[in-house]
Design brief:
The complex is a heterotetramer, with two copies of chain A and two copies of chain B. Chain A is built from four helices and eight strands. By secondary structure, chain A is an alpha+beta fold. Chain A is globular and about 45 Å long. The chains are: A alpha+beta, B alpha+beta. The structure holds adenosine-5'-triphosphate (ATP) (2 copies) and magnesium ion (2 copies). One magnesium ion (MG) binds next to α1 of chain D.
């Protein structure tokens, strides 16, 4: 299984619907400071429910909606493939309403729960406790965390 | 619970030693503060970069710390492999020699799993199969400005690769 | 005590706005959480990089955060100037454009005070008056391997300066 | 006033007596990871008593003595000049004895107290609370400190 494409719409600095295609193997993303590189990584964490809004540098979930476009919703879709017959598509959409906001997950077009998304990912060994997504600054935090916090990383893996 | 912990600890430690040696030609090891009761103590990371004495992570230089922390992270990943990895500027503290070695290692691993690496460094960009360029337009929106297939590029125009 | 604090706060804020504009062409400001009773609250750093909305330090990108934090540090220094400054890899998070602007600024300031800057980046090395090379010998001791007077070098061999 | 030269002997990775000369203006220091660049900055903080052993990445002061040379003492000397008639030399020496260690300051060859060193430096506006020495990682710590800690920086300057 691998990432085939990410579709980002009105999430963070992606005010326009944007497709990010991926080849198999080794892909680099580069560009000036503040141009939106880390926001692409955040869109993976957001769509797959792998982290809280705090880790995506937002106070509350609605802060992830682009603040320039004026639209009240944002979504990100992650498309996986195994280059043979399996295709999986996970989407997350947040909408601001008068009395709050809603956050909905979809798998292959149908609504589903976060647990269903996590179960599906777990079967391919993608888990919120795995270190397969390393955010900007994570290396520094491993260095500065306490010895006990470091041991807890092994506990979670066990 | 304790048996599970020890099995995981020993597995991660074995990979940590392998990877630290691959990245820095030195010797690294994970040590439990309290081996009898692991949950009662923490995890110490010790490493001996080549030509130096064994030292704790806290006493190393900025670049040595980040190379050691990266080795620990890769050891966790090797113990429980995932189909894709996403890294955001993990090569920031490294000098050119270490940045080059890290890029080599990722290139080698990318045969078994997909790697998406955000980086500003030449060493990573040159070794990648695909390079995605990102910019911010004047209206404040992010735009993808280019997706180059580096392998094709290398075959056609070798001299374009200088940083 | 409160009068002293306000005088210092306003002085540092004025310099912060100047320096942030010099480094990123945007607008920055220091804001007290509780202006009536400053000691009862903290200090918020807000900045608007060029072409963007005003935002708090916490929501910025890695490079924008470090440019903002650097501007704050320089504002403290401008408010209470010292005869020499020593910086250890402060340009690490910056892309080439920002690293270039920072090196320019330090070069300009180095007429008034002495700057000693540890850096791995080409932009700093090229602009310095003097470059000191350091290495670790196989016996584990640090050795100074070269002290080049860059101004002299520029006059003699201009083409050596490429990174 | 400016830095003219630093003499480092058996401090951290400087197992051999080493002179680091400085010109006026803009000086850069570069070299591979772990080669001793930050240790030069640490030698300034050590000799001028501007920080604790913890900020110099050592558990206790004797850990600053080179652990390869076998010698039991370390010292660093900072030489200042104003390129006219003023020359100031500040030295700090630590020695390990059987029952502990001693740390001694010298100014222009005479022993003195840390307060005397700080008073002399203060007259040239070099102070432990000023941000004129920025260590590796200080930029990150300004970003991650709390709003109150950030305000306290202004308090100390006032
Ligand atoms: N909800 C939002 N609406 C619009 N823009 C946003 C939103 N949230 C974040 N941003 C913008 O995204 C920018 C940060 O982008 P990002 O962190 O991806 O940059 P980067 O390319 O990783 O930069 P660096 O190289 O400095 O790490 C911020 O400057 C901010 O203006
Ligand atoms: N008491 C000591 N005796 C011998 N060596 C020491 C001592 N204390 C520290 N060191 C060595 O100094 C090295 C760190 O040097 P330093 O932090 O100056 O590196 P650096 O050049 O700044 O590297 P980087 O580019 O990674 O920041 C450590 O690897 C350690 O081995
Ligand atoms: Mg980033
Ligand atoms: Mg260093």
């Amino acid at each position: 299984l691998r990432l085939k494409e990410i579709e980002i719409d009105n999430f963070k600095s992606f005010g326009k619907r944007t497709l990010v295609p991926f080849l198999p193997g080794f892909t680099t993303i580069s560009g000036p400071n503040g141009s939106g590189k880390s926001n692409i990584i955040d869109s993976i964490l957001f769509a797959l429910g792998l982290s809280s809004s705090r880790t995506m540098r937002a106070e509350r979930l609605p802060d992830l909606i682009n603040n320039l476009s004026g639209k009240k919703e944002a979504q990100a879709t992650i498309k996986f493939t195994d280059d043979k017959e399996i295709e999986i598509e996970v989407t997350r959409k947040i909408k601001v309403k008068d009395n709050g906001y809603t956050s909905t997950y979809y798998m292959d077009g149908r609504t589903c729960t976060l647990t269903e998304v996590h179960d599906k990912l777990l079967s391919y060994n993608i888990s919120p406790h795995g270190y397969n997504v390393v955010m900007q600054g994570d290396v520094t935090s491993i260095i500065s965390m306490s010895l006990n916090e470091r041991r807890k990383i092994i506990d979670e893996l066990a | 619970k304790k048996i599970n912990f020890f099995e995981t600890f020993q597995g991660v430690d074995k990979y940590f030693q392998e990877i630290f040696h691959e990245l820095s030609f030195g010797h690294g090891e994970l040590v439990l503060e309290n081996p009898e009761d692991p949950f009662g103590g923490g995890l110490i990371i010790r490493a001996r970069p080549r030509d130096k004495k064994m030292q704790r992570l806290e006493a190393m230089s900025g670049g040595e710390k980040s190379l050691t922390a990266l080795s620990f992270m890769f050891a966790l990943q090797r113990y429980s492999p995932a189909p894709f990895y996403a890294f955001d500027e993990v090569d920031m503290f490294l000098d050119s020699i270490n940045a080059e070695r890290l890029a080599q290692m990722i290139k080698k691993q990318s045969i078994h799993a997909q790697f998406v690496v955000v980086s500003l460094r030449r060493h990573m960009l040159e070794k990648s199969d695909q390079a995605i360029g990102v910019t911010l337009r004047t209206d404040g929106f992010t735009q993808i400005i280019g997706v180059q297939n580096m392998q094709k590029k290398k075959d056609e125009e070798p001299e374009l690769m200088t940083a």
